[in-house]
Amino acid sequence: MSNFVPGNYDLRTALIFCYHLKKTAAESHRMLVETYGKHALGKSQCFEWFKKFKSGDFTYFLWGRKFILQTDHKPLVALLQTENMKGLKSTTAARLKRWAIRLLGYDFRIEYIRTTDFGHADALSRLMSKFRDDNAEELQVASIRTTENEIHLIRDSAIDTFGKDLRLQLATATDSDPDLKTVMNAIQNNVFPTECSPIVEHYKKRIDCISVVSNSLLLGDRVIIPKSMQPDILSSLHKGYPGIRRMKQLAREFVYWPKLSEDIEHLVQQCNVCALTKKLPIKVPISPWPMKKPLERMHLDFAGPIEGQYLLIFVDAYSKFIEVMTTPTISSSRTVELCREVFSRYSPPDILVSDHGTQFTADIFTQFCKEMQISHILTAVNHPQSNGRAERMVDSVKRAIAKNPSNWKKELQDFLYSYRYTPCTAAPEGKSLAEIFFGRRINSPFSKLIPSSWKPSPAAVEDLSIKNQNMQRQFEQHHGTRSRTLKPGDRVIVAFKDKRELGVIEHILSNSRFQVLLDNGRSVERHINHIWKRSGTQEIHNPSIADDWVFYEPDMTSDVTHDNTELQPCCRSTRGPRQPAGTHSERDAS
Predict the structure, then answer these.
(1) pLDDT the model gives residue 133
(2) Which mean pLDDT values do the consecutive 10-residue runs of the chain (590 residues) have?
(3) How far apart are CA 11 and CA 126, in angstroms?
(4) Which residues, other chains included, contact 449 with Cβ-Cβ below 8 Å and sequence gap of 6+?
């Protein structure tokens, strides 16, 4: 039995026979110095048991017998249960762990007793608290090395993990290592030199956890490796290239030396195999391209092929406006033709971004960019994220086409149309792509639902009216025009490319377009310049017409849409140019 008297640093232990009347067989007392008194109660009591069992005070009574160890400190019950000693947790204090290993040589069971029921340990020991004799003779009657064998087994199993040959070298290498030799002598003699190397100083701070076993050193249950054997241990740890974290976990189970973790990290970092096969480094933060205005920067990329056709996709970085061109080939010359067509339609950008495709690195494409005064930027090799604007649009176009692959060209045009007029949250101010790119809204299927609020300025209307009047006056002066009127029911002659036919005005489509019902029952649409009134009832013989008229004869049916669109004249007047003044009299005289 064991208990502790608070305030006096007084530990008392009693050996009691439990056969019949629980008579006291032996009693022990120890006054702790102030340093030990500041330790936790469980640690102090465990220290007392260790001293008594080691010195032999109770060994004569307890060795070879099964006994019960009673204490009034409950945490010790969970800490020192014999069935849990071999699996002591790494969080257990190193000193308590070492004492627990010492107690493995005894067969006992620990149990908790309340302090109020603890009467035996307080009997006579308090009277002798100031008269202890630490120089009592110790009689050794037997040498039992069961505990030491357990420790040897820990040492051997730890070093055997890295090969049995290393165990044979361990004692020799430890003895030849000057720093470890100094530590071993200091532990055995309990005296450390005042001046020592940094390695010895490192172990000096951990002296309570170090033990000497067969000319080897253990730090807890880990073998201290001499400097000469450390490369071999590191090589064994690195077998199979497990990586830094797994190597550290394995090393912390079995071996120890100063800066072990740093040596493992250095070994892995210097390994060429690990460097060539390791994962890519963590990605750096993205650096967005600067964007200020439309056509400042444009991205392009190829997609396909789709049924033998490739898609060249243009994306404006600022507005996200997209244009797609189809081509059966992706040669550099064809790429230049497509770029020239798109840039002539929207104007060339300041910067053009593409990948390292051969179409974009060819000399002809480089010369084209210089000609158009375009700064061409090539993205990093094998890094499509640098051209992410075009890559995302390639994905969007592919998914749109996949919805109707049988008629993918129509599906592509429908996608482009809807994509351009739909408001986009990623675009500036959430406007549609076309509105940002062109500076105005384009018509959509829903534009008729809400009347447009846009109106031209009065100055623009006046300027356009003046220009139209000037154009009309110049046309009249050049062609000598004369106004004519036709109404439904008028009998007319209709001019075709190689003949003329009779008909009747059926509908007035606009100021200059009429629908005529021919005598043969066919309904045609003609410009007023190709129609004139028929006088009389003469028949048309259609002689060979040799003039310079150019006709456009559409295949029209009777169902013609009536609108007020003004068509341009589709023929050239047969009248010659106006004669200069003064020639009329000469002509009349002749």
Answers:
(1) 52
(2) 44 49 60 52 52 55 75 70 52 62 74 70 48 50 48 55 66 85 84 82 84 80 86 85 85 86 89 80 70 83 82 84 85 88 86 84 88 83 69 79 79 81 74 78 73 71 77 71 79 85 87 86 85 68 49 45 41 45 40
(3) 10
(4) none
The predicted pLDDT at position 380 comes to 73
Q: Considering only CA atoms, which of 581, 584, 570 is closest in space to residue 494?
A: 570
Interatomic CA distance for residues 555 and 552, integer angstroms: 10
Kind of pairing between the strands at 523-527 and 24-31:
unpaired
Residue 505 bridge partners (DSSP): 516
Q: Show the domains of the chain with their CATH numbers.
A: 8-142 (1.10.10.1450), 159-277 (1.10.340.70), 297-438 (3.30.420.10), 490-533 (2.30.30)
pTM equals: 0.46
If residue 337 lies in a helix (H) or strand (E), which one and from where to where?
Answer: helix 332-346
- In this predicted structure, what is the pLDDT of residue 576? 46
Contact in structure between 347 and 295 (CB atoms under 8 Å): yes
DSSP 547: S
Residue type, 460: A
| Location of structure tokens 């244009």 | 323
Contacts of 523 (CB under 8 A, 6+ apart): 506, 515, 516, 517, 556, 557, 558, 560
CB distance 152 to 214 below 8 Å:
yes
Do 551 and 519 form a contact (C-beta atoms < 8 A)? no
**DSSP letter string over 248-307?**
HHHHHHHEE-TTHHHHHHHHHHH-HHHHHHSPPPPPPPP-PPP--STTSEEEEEEEEEET
Strand partners, 376: 352
User: Which of 399, 395, 370 minimizes the C-alpha distance to 315?
Assistant: 395
Neighbour-count burial of 46, counting CB atoms closer than 10 A to its CB (0-12 exposed, 13-18 middle, 19+ buried): buried
What Å distances lie between residue 426 and 317, 356, 386, 416, 423, CA to CA?
Answer: 11, 27, 18, 17, 9
Does a cis peptide bond (omega within 30 degrees of 0) precede residue 305?
yes
Sign of CA dihedral 196, 202, 203, 205: positive
